[in-house]
Amino acid sequence: MITCPKCKNQLPDGIKFCKFCGTQFTQSNGQRPAQQRPAQQNPQKPAPKKKNNIIYIVVAALLIVAVVAGAFLILGKDDSGKDREESSNNNSSAVDKNVNDEKENENNEVVLDINDMKHTTISVLWEHAVAVKNDGSVVASGDNSYGQCDVSSWSDIVSVSAGKFHTVGLKSDGTVVATGKNDNGQCNVSDWTDIVAITTGYVHTVGLKKDGTVVATGSNDYQQCNVMYFSDVVGISAGYMHTSVLNADGTVETVGEDNFGESNGMSYWADMTQISTGYAVSIGVKKDGTVIAVGNEEDGACNTSDWKDIAYVKAGDYHTVGLRKDGTVVATGRNSYDECNVSDWNEIVAIAAGNCCTIGLKRDGTVVVTGDMSNLEWTNIRLPE
Predict the structure, then answer these.
(1) Do 356 and 372 meet the contact criterion of CB atoms below 8 Å apart?
(2) Which residue would you say has higher pLDDT here, 169 or 267?
(3) Beta bridge partners of 8
(4) Terminus of the chain with fewer CB atoms < 10 Å: N or C?
């Protein structure tokens, strides 16, 4: 028998474990109880060595430096790219400006949008001519037998139109003034308001209101003043005894006399940007810069089929004139007083055509004249708007 060293119980020889407390026994020179195994404990991780900590710190620092350096490289590249882009844009703008300058130089710097002009600042019809000066005053020259040239007291004028023996002026506030012969009521415009454009026939006057409607006064022997039904109008022109209007859709309507087809012939026009009617001929500019003319063809005033790049036209009594986009001028028709001798004109921004006269306004505010009123020497004339 052996005694368990732990619980002191007696146990038979040869056993390996105490049946009471589980103590293990071993034999060494006899049967002796083995030491009880210590209770198993969770192993603790060894404390990290200082050397490993230093390595981690160095690696982390290197990573931070790499990230910061990369960020600077990216930002530097973006800024550089932005600078290059801005430089490219600036260069492109400079090139565009140079191109525009070259275009202006090629076009003699005529940059006015002539197709949209409603305010005509020079006008001539029978035997007198009139013009608006830069300060809004008005000058007139020629026959003054009916006081048609008595405009020295006018002010704040933006547009003028000459009739046969009367003159009409549009003020900046949309009201209208008139002087000269008034036997048919052609000067009865004192009650007009909201007017944006004016035009005169021989003995009637027409105004375009800002709402696109039209008013007229004067002789109505041929119904040339029956304009109350027109609407959506963007341009007007009064001829001898007829009135033509340009609609916003590019079509044309007319009322009044039609001796030579100068009135009814316009009713088929389309895609027009500007029109002008005279005594025996009517003329218009199409969107593509070509020109149509109808009316009396005996003097060649309708020979405009080869005109191109035209921005603005004017019909005289028996001749027609066209202003090209480059500031040069063409003319055709009766040339009894050299009214068609305009081939050497340049830097022109506006034109006017009368009975036997053609006037051109240069961009410096001076005028050139050919025909029976060639003595005009006006300066400081307002450019058209």
Answers:
(1) yes
(2) 169
(3) none
(4) N
DSSP string for residues in 125-137 = -SSEEEEEBTTS-
* pLDDT at 279 exceeding the cut of 70: yes
155-164 average pLDDT score: 98
**pLDDT digit string, tens, across residues 189-226:** 999 999 999 999 999 999 999 999 999 999 999 999 99
Q: Alpha-carbon distance 346 to 33, whole Å?
A: 133
Give the Cα separation of 375 and 96 in Å (integer): 43
d(CA 252, CA 227): 13
For residue 197, which of 117, 276, 124, 122 has the smallest C-alpha distance? 117
Residue 325 has pLDDT above 80, yes or no: yes
SS percent in the chain: helix, strand, coil, step 5: 15, 35, 50
- The three-point CA angle 155-159-162 to 5° equals 100
What is the rounded distance in angstroms from the CA atom of residue 333 to the CA atom of residue 356? Answer: 11
Strands 367-371 and 166-171 turn out to be unpaired
What's the pTM value of the predicted model, to 2 decimals? 0.72
Q: How far apart are CA 385 and CA 127, in angstroms?
A: 25
pLDDT (tens digit per residue) in 45-78: 334 444 445 555 655 666 666 665 555 554 444 4
Q: How far is residue 228's CA from residue 66's CA, in Å, rounded to a whole number?
A: 83
Say how far apart CA 230 and CA 239 lie, in whole Å. 17
Distance (Å, rounded) from C-alpha 275 to C-alpha 240? 15
Contact 115, 311 (CB under 8 A): yes
Residue among 216, 126, 124, 138 nearest 165 (CA): 126
User: DSSP secondary structure string, 303-351?
Assistant: --TT--SEEEEEE-SSEEEEEETTS-EEEEE--TTSTT--TT--SEEEE
**With the C-alpha atoms ordered 228, 278, 160, 187, is the resulting torsion angle positive or negative?**
negative
